[in-house]
From TrEMBL:
Catalytic reactions on record: ATP + protein L-histidine = ADP + protein N-phospho-L-histidine
EC number of the protein: 2.7.13.3
Species per Swiss-Prot/TrEMBL record: Lutispora thermophila DSM 19022
UniProt name for this protein: histidine kinase
Alphabetical keyword list: Kinase, Membrane, Phosphoprotein, Transferase, Transmembrane, Transmembrane helix, Two-component regulatory system
GO cellular component terms listed in the entry, alphabetical order: membrane
Keyword Transmembrane: yes
Pfam family, one: HisKA
Length: 488
């Protein structure tokens, strides 16, 4: 598996995201919980020390009474000293004895009524915390008023002789460290479990995401090789399935284009071969002097002329379409009467329709000149091509209907034939170059499939559009619109 593949990158991104979240959570939780437990422990020990100090200040305990009720942890050490730092009571430790001095470095703060908080290794060399509070000499009758306020706020301006000693409680930090280690161990197991589960899920997601892309890529390679029968069958998210359908449709379109290209080459080869064979054959007859009479010579020359014109028309259609698509042809816009152009075009195409006993009927629904602003010569070309196409695909003894009308600022023209029609399968491709939806029975008007493509290119160059409606066996109708001419 390549390191730069989508599958590896997706898997790595998911795992990295989970790792970052877990590491940040572990750091936050251990740091937060350690701080929380530490501060909670300090508050509890300080409250115990104050309870003892208040009781001693009111003479409710003497130094021979144990202070077990105030001890939350059996490992705590309680030390009571007088105002000089001499131990008057101690429990929980054999390292110090009554009468020894303790906490001299904290004495100044204690005599100022301040509490002290420090860390040491007094308990069997383990990390521990020491909390010390002063003992304030009070009278029971005054405790609820002035002395309680004095004790709680430690007013420094009062007489120092009121602080008669201190209470120290030393408690080990080992339970806190054990708790922190337990949390870290728990997070380690969670961490490892989450990585394993996340890896499985990430691999599954990466596979489900990349597998369709691999299939699409393989299909694209096959299409690039010319294998347009490639099909992709995907069961994935809607977006990827849509992409697969697009590739399938692309293959279908390319297959159609390839078929059209082959047909075009075959058609062009056939169409060019016919006039070229006529030109060559009759030219050889003329050169060899085989035309015995003037009539025969004139006949052969007319055939050469007709085939030359036919050949030139084919070449002109191909070059014309290329020029339109390249944008090298400039439209010459001018106002003209669509009604007049349609009538002249009908007169020109009528002899072609008469050969098949087809009548051409025209209806101007508005009865006016239908002034348009467009390139008149190009529009004539469009009408000729549409009428020639209608004659080509109409049944003998049928009718071709042309209608025109004005709607708002547009002039609409529709050409309808009664012929073989265009199948629904062919409709999306009739505007493609070299595409012929059907074969005309009239070989004299057989084309090479450029007419409709030229028509659409010219209409679109005017910023307008052309539509088609067709029913097989009933006929086809083409409608286009152009901007009407406004004198203002």
């Amino acid at each position: 598996m390549r390191c730069n593949s989508i599958r590896v990158k997706l898997w790595s991104a998911i795992i990295l995201t989970i790792l970052i979240i877990l590491v940040m959570s572990m750091i936050f939780q251990t740091s937060f919980l350690s701080s929380f437990y530490y501060n909670q422990k300090v508050r509890e020990v300080e409250e115990d020390a104050r309870d003892i100090a208040r009781a001693l200040g009111r003479n409710e305990y003497n130094f021979n009474v144990p202070y077990i009720d105030a001890i939350r942890n059996v490992n705590d050490v309680i030390v009571v000293t007088d105002y000089s730092g001499r131990i008057t009571y101690i429990t929980g430790s054999t390292d110090y004895k009554q009468g020894w001095f303790f906490g001299l470095k904290y004495l100044n703060k204690i005599l100022k009524g301040q509490k002290i908080q420090d860390e040491n290794k007094m308990l069997r060399g383990l990390d521990s915390i020491i909390i010390g509070v002063p003992i304030v000499k009070t009278q029971n009758s005054l405790w609820d008023v002035k002395q309680k306020q004095l004790y709680e706020q430690y007013i420094e301006s009062e007489d120092l002789q009121m602080f008669i000693g201190a209470v120290y409680i030393i408690t080990p930090l080992e339970p806190l460290e054990i708790t922190t280690r337990a949390i870290r161990t728990q997070f380690l197991y969670i961490f490892l479990g989450a990585i394993i589960i996340a890896s499985i899920i990430a691999l599954f997601l990466a596979h489900s995401f990349t597998e369709p892309l691999i299939k699409i890529n393989d299909a694209a390679k096959e299409i690039a090789k010319g294998n347009y029968n490639t099909k992709i069958h995907l069961k994935s998210s809607s977006e990827i399935t849509t992409l697969g359908d697009t590739i399938n449709n692309l293959a279908k379109q390319l297959s159609r284009v390839e078929q059209i290209r082959r047909e075009f080459i075959a058609n062009v080869s056939h169409e060019l071969r016919t006039p070229l064979s006529y030109l060559k054959g009759y030219a050889e007859i003329m050169i060899d002097g085989l035309a015995d009479t003037e009539f025969e010579r004139e006949k052969y020359l007319n055939i050469i002329l007709e085939e030359s014109e036919r050949l030139g028309k084919m070449v002109d259609e191909i070059l014309h379409l290329s020029q339109i698509e390249a944008g090298s042809i400039q439209l010459k816009l001018s106002p003209f009467s669509m009604d007049s152009v349609i009538k002249r075009t009908i007169d020109k195409m009528l002899p072609l329709a008469v050969k098949k006993d087809i009548s051409i009927k025209y209806s101007n629904l508005d009865g006016d000149l239908l002034l348009c602003l467009a390139d008149e010569n190009r529009i004539k070309q469009i009408l000729i091509n549409l009428l020639a196409n209608a004659v080509k695909h109409s049944y003998d003894h049928s009718n071709i209907l042309i209608s025109s009308y004005r709607l708002n600022d547009r002039i609409y023209v529709c050409v309808r034939d009664n012929g073989e029609g265009i199948s629904e399968e062919d409709l999306p491709f009739i505007w493609d170059r070299f595409y012929t939806a059907g074969k005309s029975k009239d070989k004299s008007i057989e084309g090479i499939g450029l007419g409709l493509s030229i028509i659409k290119s010219i209409i679109n160059a005017h910023g307008c559009d052309i539509t088609v409606n067709s029913v097989v066996g009933e006929g086809t109708e083409f409608c286009f619109w152009l901007p009407s001419y406004q004198e203002s």
